[in-house]
Amino acid sequence: MSRPQYPSARRDDIVDDLHGTPVPDPYRWLEDSDAPEVKEWLDAQETLFRSAELEGRDHFRDRVAELLRSGSVGTPSWRGGRRFFTRRFPEQEHPVLYVADEAGERVLLDPTVLDPSGLTTLDSFQPSKEGDRLAYQISVGGDEESRLYVVDVATGERVEGPIDRCRYSPVAWIPGGEAYYYVRRLAPSEVPAGEEQYHRRIYLHRVGTSPDDDVMIFGEGLEKTNYYGVSVSLDGRRLSISASRGTAPRNDLWVADLAASSPEAPELVAVQQDVDAQTGLHFGRDGRLYVFTDLGAPRGRVCVTSPDTPGPEHWRDLVPEDPEAVLSDFAILDDMPEPVLLVGWTRHAIGEISLHALESGERIGDVPLPGLGSVGGILERPEGGHEAWFSYTDDITPTAIFRYDALTGETTLWEAPPGSVEVPEATTEQVVYRSKDGTEVRMLVTSRPGSGPRPTILYGYGGFGVPMNPGFSATTLAWVEAGGVYAVAQLRGGGEEGEQWHRDGMLGKKQNVFDDLHAAAEHLIATGVTSQDRLAISGGSNGGLLVGAALTQRPDLYAAVVCSAPLLDMIRYERFGLGATWNVEFGSADVPEEFAWLWSYSPYHHVREGVSYPATLFAVFGSDTRVHPLHAWKMAAALQHAQAGERPILLRNETEVGHGARAVSRSVELVADQLAFLARHTGLKLS
């Protein structure tokens, strides 16, 4: 293996003084994506990447595409006798939105019909309470800049739209389908330069009117990075509003009685403000207010109270905190002599559903599940009933929808994915290891029969309270089938063990996450699963930060790295994309103490000349409006300059896709390139 000839990248003598610390930034010029010299450098990087010897591309492209031919199906949402759900057939690039009623099923919205190029994605949808109208949001080219439309469900005809600036907007219909609450950013002309991604407000919109005439309901004068939630009870009487500063694991919460105040000027009553907890509300058909909260319960609990006394001092525990399982969601089944509550949990990342008496909360049983996997989206009919639907998946089972009947106590398959695939023989074991500080951490290890050491991919995320639960993965199965091992570490910073687990890996405790990953790698080596020269790490977004920090802290421990859509310059991250909404997770370089946290691990600033770094592939996306590709550009330039060994540092730039959903064919190409790169640099031999 010979050292690649890297594109020339000048190093500027830029050094900032932050809180008395000199902070060099030699590649700041790469932050200007419109500059001709940056475009020239990116073109050269693409040429270098495409010339790389990745002989496994075709094999992984074909196998991943075949595994994805299972298609997909979504959990149904019921409204007024109609059922709304998504389904993707094997040959389709995107899931299609269907509606089903007494006349049968029909397509309501097909993104590929809207845009044959495949660049348009369906971001979200929300039927009206009667099911006769549907609001949906679409974006183009991966930018996630959702535009909101409304269609008539019976005819499929567009009623109104687009309303722009609706990224991440909930839609809360008022009964009758003539009005809804939603969230929209202020116009760019109304906010300071550079803050166009922020400044959200809640509005009341009446269908058929201009959004310019919408009534602002909430958000004026509050934190610019706030995200808002809004919902309206089934009977239309109760309005709830939540506000979170960026991605903070806490929210403020208000309710209003719309029978006592108008929808245009609801009289809001605070449920919780300036409280370090996350809380959600559900107005039950029985007149009770159900509270889902981690206040005083990091793993979550369900409480009840009256809608007229919504404050925490009135809450009564219905389902208390479990010392080992994390509460994920619940559903109420009340069309039966003894109404019940279904409660979803993850116990060390494995899903389960318990059954409780609705009035007392007493646990009276469990819902049968297909296996040891992940359960999601427990939904009942809004008008009541004795049935619930949920999704299920595990490492060898594509996501399917199951139905639980509380009258019979039976769980049955409701709908399987429309395609069929041959899944390789593989097993997943959950192992426990100790991190640097002695904390027990779990890891899911998937492999075929055999013994090590084998080429192994160690994947992690470790942030924002996001759990790494088991699930069907074409990436995992293609790698394992080819003879490798795929391990997913359930690091601190995630949500596998509740909110405290998350907080033990955020802000000033972020190093715990990196230590957990290093310990996972050492465990895999010590137990003979793999060896250092056969071990790769992979992560994206916050997981890209994870592997970026790992390769700079322990370059000796890893043979190869795939780093996708990463955060890497942690001193300037707040200036780009949605970075300012994440300082509640990472901290801010403007605050001396928090700067010290960031400076201690910021990957871009910890690249050192003369070090032999792992083979590294950066994958970034041109329309990514969450994490700007400049992070990977600067880091790639720094590593290419510093690399003392011969292992390559490559950069894969992809246009017209972003941080989130994309066409299936684009996903296949990305995974094929990544797996082929890791196969070459971990010694995985393809037959």
Automatic annotation (TrEMBL):
The keyword Protease applies. Gene3D superfamilies: alpha/beta hydrolase, Prolyl oligopeptidase, N-terminal domain. GO terms for biological process: proteolysis. GO terms for cellular component: cytosol. Residues 472-683 form the Peptidase S9 prolyl oligopeptidase catalytic domain. Residues 9-19 have a biased composition (Basic and acidic residues). Keywords: Hydrolase, Protease, Serine protease. Pfam families: Peptidase_S9, Peptidase_S9_N. GO terms for molecular function: oligopeptidase activity; serine-type endopeptidase activity. Residues 1-30 are annotated as: Disordered. The keyword Hydrolase applies. Its EC number is 3.4.21.26. It is an enzyme of class 3 (hydrolase). Residues 7-416 form the Peptidase S9A N-terminal domain. It catalyses: Hydrolysis of Pro-|-Xaa >> Ala-|-Xaa in oligopeptides. It comes from the Bacteria. Belongs to the peptidase S9A family. This is prolyl oligopeptidase. It comes from Microbispora cellulosiformans.
